[in-house]
Amino acid sequence: MSNNQSSIISLLKDRASCKGCGLASLCLPVGLVENDVDKLNAIVTRNTPYHRGDMLYNQGEAFSQIYIVKSGSVKAYYEDKDGNEHVVGFFLPGELIGLEAIHTGIHSCSAAVLETTAACEVPFEDLERLSSELPSLQHQLLRLLSREVHNDCGMVALLGNNSAEERVAAFLISLSTRFHQRGLSANEFHLSMSRAEIASFLGLAVETVSRTFSRFQEKGLLEAERKSIKILDIEALNEIGGLCASTAFQLGQKQA
Amino acid sequence: MSNNQSSIISLLKDRASCKGCGLASLCLPVGLVENDVDKLNAIVTRNTPYHRGDMLYNQGEAFSQIYIVKSGSVKAYYEDKDGNEHVVGFFLPGELIGLEAIHTGIHSCSAAVLETTAACEVPFEDLERLSSELPSLQHQLLRLLSREVHNDCGMVALLGNNSAEERVAAFLISLSTRFHQRGLSANEFHLSMSRAEIASFLGLAVETVSRTFSRFQEKGLLEAERKSIKILDIEALNEIGGLCASTAFQLGQKQA
DNA sequence: TGTTTGCATTGATGTGAATCAACCAATCTT
DNA sequence: AAGATTGGTTGATTCACATCAATGCAAACA
Q1: Distance from CA of A226 to the nearest CA of B (A)
Q2: How close are the terminal C-alpha atoms of chain B, in Å?
Q3: Residues 6 or more apart whose Cβ sits within 8 Å of residue A103
């Protein structure tokens, strides 16, 4: 085997491990020394990719592991007694899924994949054991849980007090920010979720979301062609959807 | 000093420590052996009581410790750019306050006391250090953070999809459940928050909250005399506000 | 190539809750 | 005790968004 080939292979191996993962700066490895990243990597498993509609877990199932998006995207939702679906969150690469279930040991919502998606799976018992051992890991795990609390508080505020335009603007800004953090364009991106899913998440009717997109387009704030979005005036969107003053919430800003 | 006196004094001491605290079964000590409860107790401080309007912390301040309600109640809220207050949560005895700030190290909302309230204060660095040492403590801390995520998801669902009546009913059920868990009556209780604060939390206008109370009263579901509430038909309220099927969210059910 | 299917958009209409405006009861002020 | 202030309730009106209904339009399929 040539030197060249072996270096490519080791690169690929790295890619598939926490050490080589481009998301390490957003995810659990933050703050860990290399040796400890290896220990973390040892408890992580990576399955074959999921496809649109696949479930990571279902409402009511026992909780055993958390999931971390490696590529693609996931929605969390729950079904009410009438069978209606209510989206409670979207997850992008580097974001942890299943945290709501630690408390009871039962998943209170379901997680469905929105597009071809790779996920890392971390058995929670192992993660707890390793966190006891590695204070930095415990610290980052607590931070990530806290981030979720922070984001959800922001959503509660948004849903409680803001108009349709404000909600949609805030949603787009959130996505834009998060894509940017992941090295993608902040101005042009692809929506992996349908209008209905956006509407459900924002507590609006599909038609309202659609009309709001159209209105933003008329005002020259963005171009929306089905699922591809091009933001033309991020400042104006921020003006509309910017949640609040200086120090406060940054909706869905799920960075590390 | 008589034997009698000394036993009273030691009882009072116990009351003021985690070991003798009636809330231990809801709070951080869950799962700890007696010796470890002492270690936890050693890092907790208890100040003189707070009074209505006192702040535990303000939006924008640096985060250094979490607060746990010992008696009384607290609201968390944030002010938007126009200076409007938006309540994002109410906290009862045994519930942890400030968790949203672990992530950034800055409080993204403010916490104000609603009535005469005693609180335990736990420096977060100390808590992290002790959690590394005591796996049971780490476990419970993670569970409590997860509970917060769980509850907030429930609120997102409630605010996104439910009518005024459903929101108010869910709110009352949540309070009733939580009071009951704390050894108080599930049917008769006192609201420490004003109509305006309830309205802000539920994303409604004060008038709507007031009218909904009146309507519930007309239907014979409850009696509301200013701040004292007497629930007459909890089943009916559950029917209206019960969030969803079997396994799903129990809004604000902040038990351990 | 025409047909089906599943989103997305647009228009017309209806409604639940916000807003505006009194009013009342309790508490505070002096 | 009279006036002022605050918190809560009730009524009238308005409006933002939901709902209902039709159409457009792309990808999937026969």
Answers
A1: 24
A2: 40
A3: B143, B144, B146, B147, B149, B150
Tell me whether residues A128 and B139 touch, CB distance under 8 A.
Answer: yes
**Top-confidence residue, A232 or B4:** A232
Would you state the pLDDT for residue A84? 87
Name the percent of chain B lying above pLDDT 70: 89
Contact A79 B244 (CB under 8 A): yes
Q: Within 13 Å, how many C-alpha atoms sit on residue B99's CB side? A: 27
Chain B residues 194 to 253 whose Cβ lies within 7 Å of strand D are 194-196, 206-207, 209-211, 213-214, 224, 226-227
Note the CA–C1' distance, A194 to C8, in angstroms: 9
Q: What is the pTM of this model?
A: 0.91
Q: Average pLDDT by consecutive 10-residue portion of chain A (256 residues)?
A: 61 73 94 96 93 94 97 94 90 97 96 95 98 98 98 94 95 95 94 96 97 95 91 93 50 39
Protein-covered nucleotides of chain C (CB closer than 7 Å) are 7-12, 16-21, 26
Query: Residue A246: its pLDDT value, please?
Result: 34
Q: What b/e sequence results for B210-247 when a residue is b if at least 16 CB atoms lie within 10 Å of its CB, and e otherwise?
A: eebbeebeeeebbebeeeebebeebebbeebbbbbeeb
| Strand D close to A163 by CB, under 7 A | yes
> How far in angstroms lies nucleotide C2's C1' from the CA of residue A235?
47
Residue nearest C18, CA–C1′ metric: B205
Per-residue confidence (pLDDT) for residue A11, from 0 to 100: 58
Tell me the backbone φ, ψ of residue A20, rounded to 5 degrees.
-95, 5
Cβ pair A144:B103 closer than 8 A: yes
Q: Which nucleotide, over all strands, has the C1' atom closest to the CA of B197?
A: D7
Contact between B256 and B27 under an 8 Å Cβ cutoff? The reply is: yes
How much is the average pLDDT of B141-164?
A: 96
Half-sphere exposure of B205 (CA within 13 A, CB side): 3
A117 three-state secondary structure: strand
State how far the alpha carbon of B255 is from the alpha carbons of A45, A184, A210, B18, B251, in Å: 33, 41, 40, 17, 11
DSSP B49: P
Contact of B101 with chain A, judged by CB distance below 8 Å, is answered with: yes
pLDDT at B102 over 90: yes
